[in-house]
Amino acid sequence: MVGVLAWVAASLVSGGGGPAGAVPAGTALDFDGSNDYVTFGSAPGLGVSTFTIETWFKREGTGATTSTGTGGVTAVPLVTKGRGEADGSNLDMNYFLGIRTTDNVLVADYEEGAGQTSAGLNHPVAGVSAIPADGAWRHAAATFDGTTWRLYLNGTLDSTLVVGAGRLPRSDSIQHAGLAIAMTSTGTNPSPAGFFNGVLDEARIWNVARSAGDILAAKDTEITSASGLIGRWGMNEGSGTAVGDSAGPPFENGTSSGTAPLALWVPGFPLPDTDPPVAPTNLSATAGNGLITLNWTANSEIDLAGYNIYRSTSSPVPLTTPLNGATPVTGTSYTDYGRTNGTAYYYAITAEDTAGNESGGSAEASATPSVAAGSALDFDGTNDHVTFGTASGLGVTTFTVEAWFKQEGAGVTTSTGALTTAIPLVTKGRGEADNSNVDMNWFLGLQGGTIAVDYEEGAGQLQPGAGAACEPRQAGSTPADAEQRGASTAPARTGAVAAR
Length: 500
Prior knowledge:
Strand content: 25-35%
Radius of gyration: 36 Å
CATH architecture of the largest domain: Sandwich
Distance between the termini: 62 Å
Helix content: under 10%
Shape: elongated
Number of domains: 3
Number of helices: 1
Structural class: mainly beta
Number of strands: 33
């Protein structure tokens, strides 16, 4: 099961995804939304008056709702310790984090404890961002500092509710704690039952209200133990019914329960990709007139986003501000224009993946541009070209046509009549009409990965307008005195070519 990542947090405090290239964090549990759940029993070690509750979840269906009591919420449970049962005793609910199905937003609730302003009173809070049952990974957390609720979705504040002082939760509740379910003090889930339909992973309960920064910084990690962490279930067992707590002592271990088949073990939430690509190799620098062209060998990473180009007038080249800005170069060549002739330039490149991880620098390459080095034109293969007009001075009956070229992409083909899918290099004409001065004079290009040449016979020849693709073949035939425009376009394999 795959999906995108998001993070949810509900917090009663003041203050305070999924990454490309991610791999699963161990395993997780997939609940059917009908009777699958994890129970921790009455779990006195999970009773808290201030807290942070969090979990990764992937909602795959509507699920079944339950009620947290009069004045509370009706919602699908995620991580809970209690539900609606009674008021004004230790049968009150300690905390509830779930999803309301009427508008698909995150909700949380608790009931006031003994000695508070209104023992047994519910204090629900609702988010504003809809959470569809789209099979996408998201993360949820709820925190309370004694006065204020806050809900977070994907590390971003989603809703805030000030409850006020003197209204702490029922931390001595004997109602049972669980995942994907909300239970009474007897450990049952009477009608209306509540069950989550989807996957849960890395559920955590803290006895402190963590800040928004703490929630965001830790959401993509597995935390086995930490100060203030009183319950953590990584669900990495991968089989069986045990759901172990790594945060004790005391260890509030859980049991996967329900009606067979029980919740399924599936891949866990995606951990972020933190592995950079390897450094690019075989960097070379070729000087031109006021420019330097770089070439290198392509990296093989499947999540490669591209390359960053760095330049300096001395070595070593600092890998600080790339010439390409924020957008990586996707090819394996780069031309640095506007360089000063006679000045030596040093270059290094790095590779960057889709998660933003950047490799170390390549071996450096240097070159010194000069007037003598000359320059060339790089065409985009879509609409770039050079035109000479009708160029009557280029009309010939015997000829040599030649050019250096470096093919960098497929280009766009045209037809000479005889050559039907040719990419032009140096030309005077193409297929237009036969037996007039709109016949083609000569054409040098590429077809099927090889050199291809053609011309059309001129007036007074054996077959005026007939093509002679690849090479002239008929004695007595000479090219037409064509009026078509000559053009040179950019091609790509390095080499000298000539047609006679």
